[in-house]
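JOB MANIFEST
job_type = single_chain_structure
chain_count = 1
residues = 65
[input]
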Amino acid sequence: MLTQKNILIFSDFKNDDFFSGKLKTIALEYRTQKEGITFKDKNTLLITDEKAHGEGGNLYELKIN
């Protein structure tokens, strides 16, 4: 899950009950409006943000453990 300030990664949940599993929170450094997130592979996320007021409009790659 993606918020403006954090990435929330749910794991080890049952069926579609995400809150029954583990939660890992990753704080984001950039405070732009995030628009999309996907896994590139099991250790890499791709994140996009919206361009506004001359900032943003980027694609970020984030390595996770």
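[summary]
The longest strand covers residues 34-41.
The mean pLDDT is 90.
exit_status = 0
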